[in-house]
Amino acid sequence: MWYDVVSAISNLVMAAFAVIAGIYAKGQYDEAKQQRELALRQEQEERRKEAKQDELALQEQQQHERELAEARNRTLFLDRQREIAHVEAFAVKNGGNYAVELSVPTEASIYEVRVWAQWPDEDFSYGNATGNRDSSRNGNPHVAPGKKTSWRMIRPGNWRVDTTEKRFPWTQPERINGDASAWKPVYADMRHEVVELEFTDCYGNKWRRCYGRNKEGQYVQSFVLIAAKEPELADYVEA
User: What's residue 208's pLDDT?
Assistant: First the structure.
């Protein structure tokens, strides 16, 4: 009898120890699992932070490269503009004769040159050149050398263009030499004034200089890039 009691107690103790061991083992397992999950979350968070830092670093690098490219392009634009900044066209007078003078103080030639000017029809002997007016421009000015033509190239220097009695309303540009002092710029004659000049520089970029007056009647001008062959200047093109 006592043997059975002792055996039963022993079995109960062993069962209790087994339960306790099971609980402890489960606790250890759960703790290890939680630690693994925590370590995994920490690793994922670190990777996320690293990826975010890499993304920010890449964005900063790209922004820096864009700023450098914009600065280079801006410098190139200003250099190109500076090279031809003093190319001008304006009306000149010698006694009762009027003409257009082209000033090209550059190292290289300019190309595809056209000039628009307010000019009296009666100054043109060839049919008053009424067909040479350009209605697409404000004020319907005359255009030289013609509505559908341009001077292919003009070399550096000063050149004069006159009205003509021949088939074409304007002469070809003639280099100004010894008689330069006889021709004086016209400042206040609105019947004889250049209103626009277009030309292409030696790099293939096309420029437009506009002359005019504001609402107060004051003389103003603009000088803009209207087409760029060099891709670096594309952002500076104005319609």
Answer: 96
What residue spans define the domains of the chain? 1-83, 85-236
Distance between CA 33 and CA 28 in Å, rounded?
8
Q: What is the DSSP letter of 23?
A: H
* Secondary structure in 3-state letters for 91-156: EEEECCEEEEEEEECCCCCEEEEEEEEECCHHHCCCHHHHHHECCCCCCCCEEECECCECEEEECC
* DSSP structure string for 30-52: HHHHHHHHHHHHHHHHHHHHHHH
| Integer Cα distance of 67 and 73 in angstroms | 10
- pLDDT tens across 155-176, in order? 999 999 988 766 678 889 999 8
Per residue in 90-124, pLDDT tens? 999 998 899 999 999 999 999 999 999 999 888 87
DSSP category for residue 232: G
Mark the ranges of the chain whose per-residue pLDDT is less than 70: 1-27, 30, 126-130, 165-167, 178-180, 214-219, 239
What's the rounded Cα separation, in Å, for the pair 115 and 64? Answer: 42
Q: In the structure encoding, which two tokens stand for residue 21, read together?
A: 């061991």
For tokens 């993304």, name the residue.
55
Q: What would the two tokens of residue 196 be?
A: 């626009």
Burial of residue 98, with CB atoms counted within 10 A of its CB: 0-12 exposed, 13-18 middle, 19 or more buried: buried
AA identity, residue 27: G
DSSP state of 195: E
